[in-house]
Amino acid sequence: MATLYTQQSKNVRKTWLLVGVFLAIVMGLGYFLSVYYNNPGILVFAFVFSLVMNIASFWFSDKIALSSAHAELADETQYRDLHNIVENLSITAGIPKPRVYIIPDMAPNAFATGRDKEHAAVAVTQGLLQILNKTELEGVIAHELSHIGNRDILLQSMVVVLVGFISLISNMFLRSMFWGGGRDD
Fold it and tell me: pLDDT band at 34, cuts 50/70/90?
């Protein structure tokens, strides 16, 4: 029977698998580009850059996600009810209270991010706070805290950062091809 601990272990394995697959994909892209452009330095750059991106996405994925959403630390006096909800549900879930952020956006949304429960954060939009009552907000926060408890926030955060990197590299390659880049035959 699956328990919380088997889910946590599965998510940790998935994270390490993601790191390995990302390294292999970037090495494959680096090899392709180094052969295409006849420049072996591209392969070395791809290897070093993929290691740096893996390390950065592990240590800073929460900061990247929060800054890309323009999240601001929620003031404890202004957002007292939100802090109380997060704290009460954290105690119930048996995890430390994550940092609480507000996103200045009227679209209703919330997310959890971080590498583990000691370095977690929960962010909610102002729109979500305006349209939900306390019980509904508790449900959303409980859902986000379940991501922290299941240890899948690191996996989700790393996927976003690493897929974004591959998308960026692919876009650069396609633009170089469009504007006349490529090998000289």
Answer: confident
Is residue 144 part of the annotated active site? The answer reads yes
Residues in the chain: 185
Strand partners, 102: 72, 124
For residues 82 and 42, give the distance between their C-alpha atoms in angstroms, rounded to a whole number.
48
Q: At CA 182, angle to CA 176 and CA 183, rounded to 5?
A: 165
Q: Among residues 51, 48, 32, which one has the least CA distance to residue 40?
A: 32
Torsion of CA 158, 164, 166, 172, to 10 degrees: -160
Nearest alpha-carbon partner for 183 in 30, 41, 38: 38
Q: What is the DSSP string of 17-77?
A: HHHHHHHHHHHHHHHHHHHHTT-THHHHHHHHHHHHHHHHHHHHHHHHHHHHTT-EEPPTT
Tell me the pLDDT tens digit for each residue of 106-150.
999 999 998 888 989 999 999 999 999 999 999 999 999 998 888
Handedness of CA 161, 9, 136, 101 (dihedral sign): negative
Q: How far apart are CA 5 and CA 24, in angstroms?
A: 29
Indicate if the pLDDT at residue 6 is higher than 70.
no
Half-sphere exposure of 79 (CA within 13 A, CB side): 22
User: Which residue of the set 72, 118, 136, 144 is catalytic?
Assistant: 144
